[in-house]
């Protein structure tokens, strides 16, 4: 039988891509991404023993990663963003999509959204249902639909202006 630590490490290994995606949306500097990754893993470990439904690991990790990221941004008011595109060496993908010009433009536009809208769009792009997004972000399902529609329009305008 596996120890809690071994089980946790296996989960982090299998789902670390979620944390990287959240970091990619919320942080531009490699150092901030690495700091936040460690903080998210710490917060996941703190709540691991009280996790009741291990069938919803991805949703749990998204919720913790998003909330931890938003808390870091709010606590660290000295956080300075530059207009440079993020350092893509932090996240590895199979098809090198990060080098795609359209992807870079979308990522830049997403980073200009407020924290909640970023979270919603990240989960939406990951094909989460409105109900799941509602649970993770903590707003009503109907509000999720409204926000997605509005943010899509906002993103279209931003991308058109580039």
Structure description:
This protein has 162 residues and is an all-alpha fold. It has one domain (4-161). It is 69% helix and 0% strand. It has seven helices and no strands. The protein has helices at 4-26, 30-48, 57-75, 101-111, 115-125, 130-137, 141-161. Helix 1 (4-26) packs antiparallel against helix 2 (30-48), helix 2 packs across helix 3 (57-75) and helix 6 crosses helix 7. The chain is globular. Mean pLDDT is 85; it is low at 81-95.
Summarize the structure.
This protein is an all-alpha fold and 162 residues long. The protein is built from seven helices and no strands. α1 (4-26) packs antiparallel against α2 (30-48), α1 (4-26) packs across α5 and α6 crosses α7 (141-161).
How do the helices and strands line up, and which of them pair or pack?
Blueprint: H1 4-26, H2 30-48, H3 57-75, H4 101-111, H5 115-125, H6 130-137, H7 141-161
Number of helices: 7
Class from secondary-structure proportions = mainly alpha
Order of helices and strands: HHHHHHH
What is the overall silhouette? Answer: globular
- The CA-CA distance between the termini, in Å, is 55 Å
Poorly predicted spans: 81-95
Cα Rg:
16 Å
Portion of residues within helices? 55-70%
Domain module tally: 1
**Global mean pLDDT:** 85
Strand content: under 5%
Total DSSP E strands: 0
Oligomer: single chain
Key terms:
162 residues; mainly alpha; 7 helices; 69% helix; globular
């Amino acid at each position: 039988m596996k120890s809690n630590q071994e089980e946790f490490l296996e989960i982090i290994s299998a789902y670390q891509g979620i944390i990287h995606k959240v970091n990619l949306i919320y942080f531009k500097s490699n150092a901030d991404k690495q700091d936040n990754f460690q903080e998210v893993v710490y917060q996941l470990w703190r709540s691991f023993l009280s996790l009741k439904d291990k069938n919803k690991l991805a949703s749990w990790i998204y919720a913790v990663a998003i909330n931890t990221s938003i808390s870091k941004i709010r606590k660290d008011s000295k956080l300075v963003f530059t207009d440079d595109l993020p350092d893509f060496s932090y996240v590895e993908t199979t098809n090198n999509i990060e080098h795609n010009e359209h992807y870079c433009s979308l990522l830049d536009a997403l980073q200009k959204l407020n924290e909640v809208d970023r979270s919603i769009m990240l989960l939406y792009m990951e094909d989460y249902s409105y109900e799941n997004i509602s649970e993770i972000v903590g707003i009503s399902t109907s509000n999720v639909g409204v926000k997605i529609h509005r943010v899509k329009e906002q993103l279209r305008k931003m991308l058109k202006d580039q």
